[in-house]
Amino acid sequence: MKTRLALILLVVAALALVGCGGKGAGGNAIKIGMIYNMTGSQASLDSPSANGARLAAKELNAAGGVLGRTIELVTFDGKSEAATIANSATQLTKSDKVVAMLGFSDSDMVMAAAPTAAKAGIVFVTSGATSPKLPDQVPDYLYLACFGDNVQAAAGAEYAVEALKTKTVYLLIDKGMEYTLLLGKYFKERFVEMGGTVVLEDTYQGGDKDFSAQITKVKGLKPVPDLLYIAAGPDDIGTIVKQFRDAGVKKPIMGGDGYDTPLLVQIAGAGAENVYFTTHSLMDASLGTDAVKKFIADYQAEFKAPPENAFAGLGYDTVKLIADAIKRAGSADPKAIRQALNATKDLPGVTGAITFQPGSRIPQKGVTVILVKGGAFTLAQEVVPQKVPAP
Amino acid sequence: MQMTPLDRGFTRAVLRIIPTAVLLAALGLLLAASDFLAGDYIRRIVIGIGINIVLVVSLNLSNGFTGVFSLGHVGFMAIGAYAASICTLPVALKAVNLPALPGWLSGLALPFLPATLVGGAVAMLVAFIVGLSLMRLKGAYVSVATLGFLVIVQVVLVNWDQLTRGARTFAGVPPHTTVWNAWIWAVLTVYLAWRMGRSPFGRDMRAARDNEIAARSLGISVMRSRLLAFCASAFLTGVAGSLWAHFITSFSPKSFFFTQAFAIITMLVIGGLGSVSGSVIGVALITIVSEILRNAERGLTIGALVIPPIYGASQILMAVLFVLIIVFRPQGLLGGKEIDPGLIARRIFPPTRRRDGPPDHGKDAA
Questions:
Q1: CB contact (8 A) between residue A82 and residue B309
Q2: Hey, which bits of chain B come out as E strands?
Q3: Predicted model pTM
Q4: A200, A322, B37, B283: which could form a disulfide with B52 (CB 3.0–4.6 Å)?
Q5: Which candidate in A23, A35, A175 is best for mutational testing of the B interface (most B CBs within 10 A)?
Q6: A333 Cβ neighbours under 8 A, 6+ residues apart
């Protein structure tokens, strides 16, 4: 009985301690909510994004903050799981009372949090979720800091047809993610429009570990398709590429920004050669713009490692975007922030300039096509697609 | 005043209700405080505890009372959640998120209570069909079979994307769950489990659990008692699923898989199998501890001591806690015994001794 009582008292004391302990920073800080998946299937994209965001906040605060107040990023780990994310979003809006929210590199994850933010009248800016349908699914309050999947799929299709002279394509889509379903759909639309042929379309379930069924069908194709377009997420792509290559499929593989993860080369190893993908920018100190070079240097100094992928840059740009809106609004009122955000024009960023055209909450940004060569990401081409499928 | 046996019976009945009534009144006050006075954060924890009580007590009904250790009960929670959410999702959202719904569903938008009952009913129906075969198994076999059931539910949810959006997030569920309706269901569930446990039916279940052959020799229909408990428990778990879905408003099939299953089983085992009050205490304890850990995960500053964020720490610590309890106190905190409010009341206010018969003249006697 005594140990039970002691246990209960310990729990109550700990609760009180955490209740007082967690809300550290100064009373006058501007609180911005940040939800990223530090664990789970999205971690390889969201962790660098969170780092980039923290770097931006640190820089802003070192320069005196915004409107004279420090920026405080109230962070939650979404665990790549919808229920945890929804809980965190509610806590951010109701308890922490943040004035803006940012996060996520995946559209399904965003849908778990953004409706809560919208209901509380707070903008949600996603750094890396690329579904062009998102602004319609959460009207007025959901903004993208990155391009839409229709843009990157069109860029991929145009590059494949014009630079790689692709005529026939095998399409493999992960049917477990909104992102991959849309990416595959837009690619097919643009590719067929340009005169190409999809010889076979197949699907798999995200998290599958064995692709022998799909590989068998590909190897049975006569003639062999010029290109394999695989719409996959960061956790699966390494395994897929490895298995395809091990089975003797040597043709180029192409995909979207889900490939922009260190896991691709880590898992696929030599198999990652001749893989193309479209993403937001290339984190290369020798090739990039001045903004990219500075970002790489600062990131290296802060986190003792170079930025893992473009998502680090996206996280950085998103915090800068929100801070810019707050500055132009002249206040941290959520309504004013939204008005100012709508008027964002030519804001320079690591991953490109951001402008929100009237009525649109997706910026028009250029696409970087990356080729994996020699185990490293190299620049294939910067593409601005000529024609983009409707969302 | 001389009391007739009828008066005495009535008084005793009233006296028996008083401890429970006091408990309920205290609960009502606590709930009102959390709803109107405390912040939103506390309110969410209180609702969470309420929903978990429904989940764990209904699981106890199947696992603790009948000895059928179901590992796949979260499947019923999933069925209840999806069935109820599909019913309550507003028609406009249904058109956007679930465009391929059959006609009679796509125009439907039920209020909360009917939808919750539908969720529970569908779960109960599935339990009946599945239970007819599963309840014949015993021991480890039935546990693994229920795990298989959980996997089947997961696969169906992920692949039937016209109805469930597949593996993608099911968002936009209206937030109907409040402190009151979650706790009304919790109190109902506890009452049901309590009464069932104390009824002859409950004794049948326990007999079948402790010694199946002896129970059968007494004429107890083991299959019937197990199936009934399984179905009742599935109904309540389905209801809990609906409550949870309308609390969290966004979920996916992954929310109803092993992680959630073991979270519930952890609460059940820590409270103690077969003990309803144990489940309630186990739920409260684990919910509060995991909330603390979830916040601590983000990093703390206590005075001059700064603990950096350790993501994933809450899950590791919960697993360690579970292992410790299994090793050092496998019967759970309450060890299968119940906290009877009547018993406690009688310890605090011991009844004065009264011999049956004429009133006591002992003091006045010469």
A1: no
A2: 300-302, 305-307
A3: 0.81
A4: B283
A5: A175
A6: A99
